[in-house]
Write a structure and sequence with these properties.
The complex is a heterodimer of chains A (414) and B (288).
Chain A: H1 2-35, E1 40-46, H2 53-72, E2 81-87, H3 92-104, E3 110-113, H4 117-130, E4 134-136, E5 144-146, E6 149-151, H5 156-171, E7 174-180, H6 183-198, E8 202-209, H7 217-226, E9 230-233, H8 241-249, E10 257-260, H9 268-271, H10 274-277, E11 281-284, H11 293-306, H12 314-333, H13 338-345, E12 350-353, E13 356-360, E14 367-376, E15 382-391, H14 394-399, E16 409-411
Parallel strand pairs in A: 1-2, 1-3, 3-4, 4-6, 7-8, 7-9, 9-10, 10-11
Antiparallel strand pairs in A: 5-16, 11-14, 12-13, 13-14, 14-15
Helix pairs in contact in A: 2-12, 3-4, 5-6, 12-13
Chain B: H1 3-33, H2 41-57, H3 62-83, H4 92-114, E1 127-130, E2 133-136, H5 137-159, H6 161-171, H7 173-178, H8 183-205, H9 215-230, H10 234-255, H11 258-275
Antiparallel strand pairs in B: 1-2
Helix pairs in contact in B: 1-5, 1-8, 1-9, 1-10, 2-3, 2-4, 2-8, 2-9, 3-8, 5-6, 6-8, 9-10, 10-11
Classes of the chains: A alpha/beta (414), B mainly alpha (288).
């Protein structure tokens, strides 16, 4: 009994000591951070671990690559960029937690963060309230509209408009849709229907699939029953890659085309076998295989630092564009003050990125950029078959005018 | 509705049930028979898939790679039993925690070793035509695999010396020890058998379900529900529950939507457990 009490005492004292020590250490840490005040603090939150790190690691790498390149040229306004990065671990609550920490404690001047729409939506109110420009660099369903939020990935309507036009011309008007069962899938399916109607096509049917499904026999039968000219497939997550294998093995690729706006964005073409991957058509704002001086330079930089064992995904190019567009805006504003930087960002900036010339639309905060149509080959890669130049984010441009209505804070849905 | 569509749906509902049963048998042995709640079951499947992938890519034919994967996963299971599970028999919550931890470790190890994307091996591009429809030969082959696997397991557990001793060691390990059965060693073997079956599942499904670190998650929930619905007569129950749930979900998905198929799977599970709280085989007078 006595012995127990003594033990508890010791433990308490130890804990107290440890806590004090930690407090002191944290205090000093805080001080040293405060004294390096001349740097421009750049915040980043990406999924470096967990299920989403297939995207997050590359986004983070591209961000570091861009910041290093800027620092190598002397930084911005004569000040160095100092990256403070947090790992959101593929967990939604971490984004709000770290966004607040980075803004309040580390006094970041800009935030690069997030892959999923839910992560972006969680951070959007925080950056609006604290007035920190925020860049979201992933392809997504579209429609986000907020004064402090800038989007460098392609929106669903932007990719889908050219893809459906191309596919109807190539394969014929009858369409079947296979999409994941959440907002990205349902909104994308809506765009397929809209563009099909405009272009004289017809959607024969659709199947929305939960992300844990691994057996696609029912979907494949329904596709065979509907007899479409082509299938729009939007595989998300590792399991849905299996759909492409089962689709090919059932012999459907000989009977119809298969197109996608997100195939390749998670390097799915590496996972699928050559038989299943060959001939799948995809449309995105960037593929590693596109030609151009901008892409060659970007790839050379990437290769020198990270190697090219794993193909570079579109989210990496979008992150690179995001950092560079912000840097151009800071130089133009001559300051990191929020109002001035936002005004500069809304001045019609252009940048020659890995994927060609991009234009930041002043009203919608989305990019006008090239959309590439590519076709899978037998070497786990793509061949570029058509480039649509400077495709506007038409839905966002139509709905979202942040210059006339700066107070807008919405995620518009069609 | 045309007759050929009905026939294809019937066949594919059987293949769906087969996939579910193949993915569940390992858990039927470890959880159903031994009573160990192995939350790492999905990661054992993933372990088998990656083993088969590595072995195939080193040039070994796929059929041999599947057997190697089953054996390697069984060996890994034996080690896990010796090191972790053995200390936790009869401690349900501790087992839950330990196997969940193990699943996290295995998942992250796969990410670190293989990265997030690894080239798959793909399915044989052959298919069977039924009227206007085609169905992948490999999926039909899985139907045969499931039947052979169930029969072999039934034979192993009821007709062989090992099977009888194994069930004795699980039912009453003290009495079994008293009559000279080495319960500890036998339990290691049974756990290894269950692990090997999970590894086999991952390997044989690899062409249709590419190996990824998170693949286990897709299987583990439905596998657990199937074994729980199955009840005490583990093997027959698993085949029955897997056949029922798997094919019902498939048929609903074929005529309606995949989401509806999933809903039917879970509603049916709830309904069956409401009617048979101890599983559908609770009042059966069979051994396995």
């Amino acid at each position: 009994m006595f012995k127990d009490i003594k033990q508890i005492k010791t433990t308490r004292r130890t804990v107290l000591g440890a806590a004090l020590g930690l407090g002191v250490a944290a205090g000093f840490g805080g001080l040293s951070r405060a004294f390096a005040a001349d740097d421009i603090a750049v915040g980043a939150i990406y999924d470096l671990t967990g299920g989403l790190n297939i995207y997050g690691i590359q986004q983070s790498r591209a961000m570091h690559l861009a910041v290093d390149a800027i620092n190598a040229k002397g930084g911005l306004l004569g000040r160095k960029l100092n990256v403070i990065e947090s790992d959101s671990q593929s967990e939604l609550p971490k984004f709000t937690q770290y966004a607040n920490t980075l803004i309040l404690r580390n006094k970041i001047q800009v935030l690069f963060a997030g892959l999923t729409s839910s992560a972006r939506e969680a951070m959007r109110p925080i950056v609006r309230e604290k007035k920190v420009p925020y860049f979201y660099s992933a392809l997504y369903e579209g429609g986000a509209c907020d004064k402090q939020t800038f989007i460098t990935g392609a929106s669903a309507s932007q990719q889908m408009s050219v893809l459906i036009e191309w596919a109807i011309k190539k394969y014929g008007p009858k369409i079947y849709i296979m999409a994941p069962d959440y907002n990205f899938g349902t909104i994308s399916a809506h765009w397929v229907e809209t563009y099909a109607k405009q272009l004289g096509g017809e959607v024969l049917g659709s199947d929305f699939l939960p992300l844990t499904v691994t057996d696609y026999a029912p979907t494949i039968q329904k596709i065979q029953a509907a007899k479409p000219n082509f299938v729009v497939t939007l595989p998300v997550g590792a399991n849905q890659t299996g759909f492409l294998e089962q689709f090919a093995a059932a012999g459907l690729k000989k009977q119809m085309g298969i197109v996608s706006t997100n195939y390749g964005s998670g390097n799915q073409q590496v996972v699928v076998s050559p038989d299943a991957g060959e001939g799948i058509v995809a449309s995105q704002e960037y593929f590693m295989w596109i030609e151009g001086a901008g892409n060659d330079a970007f790839k050379a930089l990437w290769k020198a630092k990270y190697g090219l064992d794993e193909p570079i995904i579109s989210e990496a190019a979008s992150t690179w564009n995001a950092v560079n567009l912000w840097a151009i805006a800071v130089e133009k504003a001559g300051s990191t003050e929020n109002d001035k930087v936002i005004a500069a960002l809304e001045s019609g900036l252009t940048f020659e990125g890995p994927n060609g010339l991009v234009t930041l639309q002043p009203k919608s905060h989305h990019l006008k950029q090239n959309i590439y149509i590519v076709q899978g080959n037998r070497d786990h890669g793509f061949d570029v078959i058509k480039t649509y130049e400077s495709v506007a984010p038409s839905f966002e441009d139509e709905k979202c005018d942040l210059i006339a209505n700066p107070a807008t804070a919405e995620a518009f849905t069609p | 509705m045309e007759i050929d569509y009905l026939l294809v749906v019937l066949l594919s509902s059987l293949t769906s049930a087969s996939v579910l049963i193949i993915a569940t048998l390992g858990l039927a042995v470890i959880f159903g028979l031994m009573g160990v709640v192995n939350l790492a079951h999905g990661e054992f499947i993933m372990f088998g898939a990656y083993t088969a992938l590595v072995v195939t890519r080193s040039g070994v034919p796929f059929s041999i790679a599947v057997i190697v994967a089953a054996l390697v996963t069984a060996l890994f299971g034996a080690i896990v039993e010796r090191v972790i599970i053995r200390r936790l028999y009869g401690r349900l919550l501790d087992t839950l925690l330990a196997t969940w931890g193990l699943s996290l470790v295995l998942y992250q190890s796969a990410v670190l070793i293989f990265g997030s994307v690894t080239p798959g091996i793909g399915m044989p591009q052959s298919n069977v035509r039924i009227g206007d429809y085609t169905i992948s030969s490999y999926m039909l082959f899985l139907l045969g695999v499931a039947i052979v696997l169930v029969l072999a397991l039934y034979w192993l557990l009821t007709k062989t010396g090992y099977g009888i001793v194994a069930r004795a060691a699980i039912q009453d390990s003290e009495t079994a020890s008293a009559i000279g059965i080495e319960s500890g060693r036998i339990n290691t073997m049974t756990f290894a058998l269950g692990s090997g079956l999970a590894g086999f599942a991952g390997a044989i499904l690899l062409p249709a379900v590419p190996a990824t670190p998170g693949m286990g998650f897709a299987f583990v929930i439905k596998a657990f529900l199937t074994v729980v619905v199955a009840g005490p007569v583990t093997l027959t129950g698993t085949v029955l529950a897997g056949g029922l749930l798997g094919s019902a979900a498939n048929i609903v998905a074929s005529f309606w939507t995949t989401v509806a198929g999933n809903i039917v799977f879970f509603m049916l599970t709830m309904g069956l457990l409401r009617l048979y709280p101890n599983g559908i085989t609770a009042r059966w007078n069979r051994k396995l």
